[in-house]
Amino acid sequence: MNSELLVSDASHFRVDYEINPYMDTAVQPDAEATLAEHRAIVAAHLAAGRTVEYLPSVPQCPDMVFTANAAVVRGGRAVLGCPPPQRKAEIPYFQEWLANRGFEVVEAPYAFSGQGDALACGDLLLTGHGQRTDERMLPVLARELDYEVVPLRTLNSRWYDLDLAVGVIDADTVAYCPQALDATSLRTLRGLGVELIEVSLEEATRFALNLISDGTTVTMAQAAPRLAAALRDRGLKVVGLGTSELAKGGGGIRCTALTLDRAPAKQR
Ligand code: ARG
User: Fold this and answer.
1) Atom of ligand 1 at shortest range from CA of 69
2) Domain ranges, residue 238
3) Which family, according to the similarity comment (predicted)?
């Protein structure tokens, strides 16, 4: 899992609008520091043996570095994201890139945060709804990508995307912040039969769960020593990186990569 990733770059990353509670147009990222952060993330993927594809960002799309919201992909099919109006201009670039690479591209009929709200866990798709994803997307995702969709709701806009509240470590292990999910979702998650790792509110707020795991190496924010220790205890290699500039846009490591793993997990 997460062996092939689509990234963009941070060349045009700015806080031009406020569409999540972390964004403040009065607090702009430092351009050089952001480029360095993003380069370090890409270098970590390459060092972990992951394939990294690249789509250049464009000046009119200041959030394009967060490629995770552009779509969710499984085995040659991609369901495009349908983001808030401020980010709509990004989608055609991804649509074209995916189509040119031979993906069958499906448009989302309702609001949809792409992989930000759709985390693959084996044949399950942990799917956030109620913030940036319309509940009506759940059956669409199940049908188009042949996943068993597991609906999860975060409590408020601090967790505007599920990838801030939940992190998939491998097909049998999921990390999550109990304070970020509603009671029904906690019951759902605890009933899945996967091993769960609890992450504190404090570390989750520092984007600890916005991680990328390939089942061997976990690339994550360095500001979360307790989760890092829990993962190391399980035999995983943990690479901690600084994400203070990307955090000004309300994003972290997971947000900057769209997973492309082409192999279907299940026969269609
Ligand atoms: N500023 C971006 C937005 O609000 C951040 C997106 C982060 N992506 C994610 N998958 N959580 O849309």
Assistant:
1) 10
2) 4-259
3) Belongs to the DDAH family.
